[in-house]
Write a structure and sequence with these properties.
Layout: E1 2-6, H1 10-21, E2 25-30, H2 33-42, E3 46-49, H3 55-60, E4 68-71, H4 76-90, E5 94-98, H5 102-105, E6 120-122, H6 124-137, E7 143-147, E8 152-158, H7 172-176, E9 182-189, E10 192-193, E11 207-213, H8 217-222, E12 233-237, H9 241-250, E13 255-260, H10 263-272, E14 277-280, H11 286-291, E15 299-302, H12 307-319, E16 324-328, H13 332-338, E17 345-347, H14 349-359, E18 366-372, E19 377-383, E20 407-414, E21 417-420, E22 432-437, H15 443-450
Parallel strand pairs: 1-2, 1-4, 2-3, 4-5, 5-6, 12-13, 12-15, 13-14, 15-16, 16-17
Antiparallel strand pairs: 7-8, 8-11, 9-10, 9-11, 18-19, 19-22, 20-21, 20-22
Length: 457
């Protein structure tokens, strides 16, 4: 595909990298030549320096024969106008835009084809709120990814020393939890994927990805963790859009405190929150955190717009006794910096957003894309179509699929029934398959496998 990306920030540059790796023709527009030069140093892309919403700039980028426009600048209005121009002047087939302001999102009619024609709206704040909510609702996990309209979840969990599964083989799970159906998708040891097999002996610190039905996840997590306890007390640092939405989601089922440094903003969110305690103060104030019993907090979520404030406040909260600390970190270099520190989970808005973008870019009938391990791995939900003559997958057993070695089928949704992967299951047209890939570059091979083509007639 020929794709133009507006904005060379974290989301734009990461999206460009993913798309170039899959063989797309990518052009990036930004007003900052330094950012574009950095991108060109390691990516085979075209760049255009200019104002993203000007028709002349779009023409220089080749908008006339572009298949898709991805507008992810930091300015909602620029993204919206660029999509309008691409549609009105150049009939660009597909337009995706990042929209942050809640006021715009509250009026979906604004984005109709006869208004501001945007095919797919990406709201990073909404996506990050969903992501953190899932992490809190599913205690003790590193990632939670939803499939089959959230009927099944792919979860990452680290094996605790002294837990039930520490030193046990994978097949021992069947004896421990005979009534639970699940599928191990991948195991990472020392940052590398290890070959799957029932005889693999798990070790402390192994990172295990498994797929199971939503209601059975907790029972599975317990055997990997030494001291499993649900999260009850939540402390949110930052009363911006994400902090407020997170509190609204959690306040009915959890004890929520939220701290905001801007007094007027603190008053506003206090009026909108009915069961949360809103505090006016500095997220890095140790005295305030102690006064609010931070040592009894289950999860400290740092969600301000400042990476440094998030990192330092989360580290401080952990030192003062918080059980778990989550921190939003926008810059990729900062994410790498905090690995192995007292921050339990670094939440990257860019990686979460990219997964949603890729869902609408993939070939074939791809329902969901999740970017994992900072973009190194991926999990997708894809639909099989056709018949044995027109498809490489329909009418064939799982054991007969020519998947890359890095790919694992986790489960199949057939009509309303979830089938966990067994080698003798034969794929039918309309089946939804969850596929986990430990190497993101192999996604292209999987997509080609699922495409329906007349060459098989």
């Amino acid at each position: 595909m020929k794709i133009i990306i507006l904005g060379a920030g974290q989301v734009g540059s990461s999206t460009a990298e993913s798309l170039v790796n899959e063989g797309n023709d990518v052009t990036v527009i930004d007003q900052n030549p330094v950012l574009l030069e950095r991108l060109q140093e390691h990516l085979d892309i075209r760049t255009v320096v200019g104002y993203a919403a000007h028709p002349g700039t779009l023409l220089k980028a080749g908008i006339k024969d572009t298949d898709m426009l991805i507008a992810v600048t930091h300015n909602d209005e620029i993204n919206m106008i660029a999509c309008q121009i691409a549609s009105s002047l150049f009939n660009t087939p597909k337009k995706l835009a990042r929209i942050r302001a809640a006021d715009y999102l509250e009026y979906p009619a604004l984005f109709a084809l006869d208004a501001v024609p945007i095919d797919v709206i990406i709201s990073p704040e909404q996506l990050v709120t969903d992501y953190i909510t899932h992490l809190i609702e599913q205690p003790e996990v590193l990632q939670v990814l939803t499939f089959f309209e959230d009927r099944a979840r792919l979860v990452a969990v680290r094996v605790d020393a002294g837990s039930i599964m520490d030193g046990k083989a994978i097949h021992d799970l069947l004896d421990l939890l005979p009534k639970i159906q699940m599928r191990i998708a991948a195991i990472f040891r020392n940052e590398s994927a290890i070959p799957l097999g029932g005889k693999i002996i798990l070790q402390a610190e192994d990172e295990v990805f498994f797929l199971a039905e939503k209601h059975q996840i907790s029972e599975l997590v317990k055997v990997f963790k030494k001291d499993y306890q649900p999260y009850k007390r939540i402390f949110i640092a930052g009363g911006g859009q994400i902090g407020k939405q997170l509190a609204q989601r959690l306040e009915k089922s959890h004890n929520v405190k939220i701290i905001e440094h801007n007094e007027n903003r603190a008053r506003v969110i206090a009026e909108d929150l009915h069961h949360s305690l809103v505090l006016h103060g500095d997220v890095g104030d140790a005295s305030l955190l102690k006064e609010e019993y931070i040592h009894k907090t289950d999860v400290f979520c740092a969600v301000t717009n400042d990476d440094e404030a998030n990192i330092l406040s989360a580290m401080l909260a952990k030192r003062l006794g918080a059980r778990k600390t989550f921190s939003i970190i926008s810059k990729a270099s900062h994410v790498e910096l905090v690995e192995g520190t007292s921050i339990d989970i670094a939440v990257s808005p860019a990686q979460i957003t990219i997964g949603t973008l890729l869902t609408h870019i993939r070939r074939g009938d791809v329902i969901t894309v999740h970017s994992l391990r900072q973009g190194a791995a991926e999990a997708i939900e894809i639909v099989a179509h056709g018949d044995k003559q027109t498809s490489n997958v329909v009418g064939r057993k799982l054991s007969e699929l020519k998947l890359p070695k890095t790919a694992t089928v986790g489960a199949i949704l057939r009509k309303e029934k979830i089938l966990f992967a067994e080698k003798n299951i034969e794929i039918e047209s309309g089946d939804h398959l969850v596929i986990f890939l430990t190497e993101q570059q192999d996604v292209d091979e999987v997509e080609k496998l699922f495409q329906v083509g007349f060459e098989f007639l």
